[in-house]
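Look over both lines:
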Amino acid sequence: MTSLVYIAFQDNDSARYIVEAIAQDNPNAVIQHQPAMIRVQAEGRLEIHRATVEEKLGREWDVQEMLIDVITLGGNVEEDEDCFALHWN
């Protein structure tokens, strides 16, 4: 069984900033640009930090905003106001 977690976003301006933040915080993440979609995957765990996304966007950001741009994801979800994480146990 694979332990890859993944999340795919619509390829739009706001999602590109989120993907930049993911890449900064998860150096092991693999980013695949596909037609109209950006897929991010990592072995074991992937974290999206509110502070890093805010830095990229240049404004306050609520983790829940991300869900507007999400197409699909794979992994167990841990979410609070500062972080959205995917992992397998």
